[in-house]
Specification:
Structural class: mainly alpha
Order of helices and strands: HHHHH
Oligomer: single chain
Length: 137
């Protein structure tokens, strides 16, 4: 894959991720985290940390899931590999919090692990599907 295609795919994946995650955070789970975490939540988002997470997560999806899917059988393997990648990434955060923080809610961990899998799978599948159609035709 050319550098131009790699950069395009990264930006495409970032947009897909951002749109899906913003629907989750802004609409679906908007009140969930506040009700579960209460005083633990910061009144202000640390945007530098959030953006760094997005950039690294997308790089991982692209390197370990999406590009291998484009080099192989297409978008469908990206679905389950992306789901596994998302589960592992979100588990790193949530299971560490569950193990080390007092009063970390188990429900938050369960919901986040499920969300990480859904998000990773959906983003990877869509990016690989679009990439397959753009680069393999």
């Amino acid at each position: 894959m050319s550098l131009k295609n790699t950069v395009f795919l990264y930006l495409l994946t970032l947009v897909i991720f951002f749109l899906i995650d913003m629907v989750w955070l802004g609409l679906v789970a908007k009140n969930f985290y506040r009700s579960q975490l209460g005083e633990m939540l910061s009144p202000k988002v640390n945007w530098a940390a959030a953006i760094l997470f997005y950039l690294l997560f997308i790089a991982g999806l692209q390197l370990f899931v999406i590009e291998p899917a484009l080099a192989g059988a297409g978008a469908l393997p990206a679905l389950w590999r992306g789901a596994l990648f998302g589960l592992i990434a979100y588990a790193t955060y949530d299971l560490t919090n569950l193990a080390t923080l007092k009063n970390w809610p188990l429900l938050v961990t369960v919901v986040d692990l499920a969300w990480g899998a859904v998000l990773g799978g959906a983003v990877s599948f869509l990016a690989a599907l679009i990439g397959w159609r753009l680069f393999k035709s």
